[in-house]
UniProtKB/TrEMBL annotation, chains A, B:
The keyword Thylakoid does not apply. This is HxlR family transcriptional regulator. Residues 11-109 form the HTH hxlR-type domain. Coiled coil: none annotated. InterPro entries: HTH_HxlR, WH-like_DNA-bd_sf, WH_DNA-bd_sf. Pfam families: HxlR (PF01638). PANTHER family: TRANSCRIPTIONAL REGULATOR, MARR FAMILY, TRANSCRIPTIONAL REGULATORY PROTEIN. The keyword Phosphoprotein does not apply. Keywords: DNA-binding, Transcription, Transcription regulation. GO terms for molecular function: DNA binding.
Length: 113, 113
């Protein structure tokens, strides 16, 4: 048990949940779980994400030390993103959530309301 | 393995992920995991949620058959919300994600950027 509680609005656990409980954060972390990616690779891999949204999501995750950006000694110069140890700790929860979405997609899509 | 893929923008899995990958959906499902709740109980339990946002979140989850609203034969009349079988299937992933947030809250709160 933790002393933190996501039910409390001013608890750091709620802040932590706010940080990661959105589609783009989940998909980016899930994608980086397969290994480091360049920006262009992530943009190609993640359908429907705008460059602005991808940049914002990467910056947010980097600022919170879930991912790190590493400049590559290549020509032309490039950079890649990878999960930090903290980010890797999120990979399990994110994989479970994305797996649930993939497994139950059909049931949810059957909604005619 | 599923045929569905959250990386694809037009895949039902992405739609399913969009539905549940937000803080309020996570907290409401997590809360209902402890048993049925009346609206007023949920509102009291979930810190910081406005009535408008709670109503919207409950309607969205109900429309997608993750929760059900049951009218109670009480005086004054009341209603309670509970997870459906589909909603209960989401309880595991949501519990893992909320648990991660509670466990890593301190590390993330240490961010001074």
């Amino acid at each position: 048990m933790s002393d933190y509680d996501v039910f409390l609005s001013d608890c750091p656990a709620r802040t932590a949940l706010d940080l990661v409980a959105d589609t783009w954060s989940v998909v980016v972390v899930y994608g980086l779980g397969r290994g480091p990616h360049r920006y262009s690779e992530l943009h190609a891999r993640i359908g429907g994400i705008s460059k602005k949204m991808l940049t914002q999501t990467l910056r947010k995750l980097e600022r919170n030390r879930l991912i790190e950006r590493r400049v590559l000694a290549t020509a032309p110069a490039g950079a890649e993103y990878r999960l930090t140890p903290l980010g890797r700790s999120l990979l399990g929860p994110v994989t479970v959530l994305a797996g649930w979405a993939e497994q139950h997609a059909e049931e949810l899509a059957g909604d005619d309301d």
